[in-house]
Amino acid sequence: MTNGIKLLILDILKPIEPPILEYAQAIAAIDKSYSVSLRVEEIDEKTETVEVIVIGDNINFKKIEEKINKLGGTVHSLDEVSEGKQMINSKDFSGMRK
Amino acid sequence: MINFFRKILDYVKLGISDKIARRYFIVNAFDGSLTLLGMLMGAFIVGIENYHVIFGAGMGATIAMGISGLSGAYLSEKAERAEGIRELEKAMLKKLDNTTLSEASKVAPIFSALAHGGSPFLAGLLIMAPFFFGELFSVTRLVYMSLGLCFGILFLLGLVLGKISKENMFLSGIRALAVGIFTAVILYIFKI
Is residue A3 included in any domain, yes or no? Predict the structure, then answer.
């Protein structure tokens, strides 16, 4: 049995409208196991950069990207992924990294 | 079906077009009411005795105002939305076809058109309502009733404006009514 992706952190660029609420709802609606968090990191005149964190079982990146594109946003980078039996929070290991 | 309406509602929210639509609904209803006020005053001063003439002219103006509002608003709003999407595409550095945004930019002009065209049409229809029973009353009485309805609509629009701006609603209503009365007096003085 594969455990799939458990954590996904994305960096997206989106138009100011629709607000991140819509994005959160759209992504969370993909699967019942998903928990979603969005945080605005930078605001420009017409766009904003948002960090998207998704936690769940077997996270489907393609579907999430599709939803983001549908709402007018675009995935800039895939910043963190955790896959396997246990979810790893990279912050717990950040001391080792630096 | 419910989903369809919810989707439309989302689109309207997306475009923040409900406020604009509300504004134009009131502006155009005002416009329509004053147009018919002018026509009624004209007919009244000249002393037209056949109510069919006033009815025909009034309904003609009402329908034309409706169509003018519909088409004009649809075309201009559509152009504005398309421009907005193009600007956003520049900022996003990508095409926004087949996104909720481009879909919203297609639906919003329809709402705008309904507000633009529907409001003068409804106002006109209400003001002309007594003339649907033209045979029951004398022409003078019909004109008085229509003028009364017209002033009533103006007052009501003023009330709505007062509610929106959270000012004194009654005062706002009186202000709108004053515009109508002022117009009527001007027309009467100049015997147009």
Answer: no
Q: Does the residue A77 lie in any domain?
A: yes
The CA distance from A34 to the nearest CA of chain B, in Å, is 22
- Cβ separation B88–A70 shorter than 8 A: no
The 10s digit of each residue's pLDDT in B66-80 is 999 999 999 998 998
Domain span at residue A27? 19-81
Q: Any CB–CB contact under 8 A between A47 and chain B? A: yes
Nearest to B88 among A15, A70, A71 (CB): A15
Does a structural domain hold residue A26?
yes
User: The tokens of B74 are what?
Assistant: 């649809």
Which residue blocks in chain B are alpha helix, DSSP H?
2-14, 17-46, 51-92, 100-128, 139-165, 169-190
- State the ipTM, two decimals: 0.72
Q: Do B88 and A72 touch (CB under 8 A)?
A: yes
pTM, to two decimals: 0.73
